[in-house]
Structures are given as structure tokens and as C-alpha cells.
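WARN no homologs supplied; continuing
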Amino acid sequence: MTTNIDSLKTTLRRWTLILGVLQITVGCLVGFIPPSAVAWFRGIVMAHIEFTANGVLMIAFGFLVTELRLGSAALKVWFAMLQVGAGDSDRDVPDVVLEQSEWNRDCRRYG
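OK structure emitted
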């Protein structure tokens, strides 16, 4: 039984580290997009920071997965929730863009 959990922990550790490095790589690649290439550069900067920070956190969790005292099912749920939590880093961008554009419009209107 413990060898199955140890094997699962090793597999989850490997995949968490791989996906963490992938997120850092994507974050760095997004950071190379020049300001003239996009209409709203602050969103690119925010995505760059969020992808990179999520990747660093995933790598930290990858190193700590062997210390977790969870069963097989709980480890699988933990891994799935980690991926879901790290994957929605840019969901709030449209709301921020809308609020920013409304704020700019009001500032131009009222001086």
C-alpha cells in the first residue's frame, strides 16, 4: 500500500514540477511581448506576473508533495485542484479592462 502511495507521490511531484516550469516559461514568453503589439499592455504585464508566480508556487508545492500525509484519492484531488487554481490566472482581465475604460471615460468627461 505504501509503495503505491509513494509511487503516486513521485508521479505527482514530477508532473507538478513539469507544469510549474511550463507556467514559468509561458510567463516569461508573455513578458517578451512588446508594448506596441497589443492594445492593452497592462493586461500582458499582469498575465506575465501571474503565470510566473503561479509557476513558482507550483514548483514549491511540487517539492513539498512528498511531505503530504494524504491518501491516494486525496492526493489526486489535491493535484486536480492545484491545476484548476493555477490555470485561471487571467479570468479577471476583461472586468479590469471594462472598469479601466469607464474610469478613463469619466476622467476625460469631468476633467
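The chain has four helices and no strands.
OK
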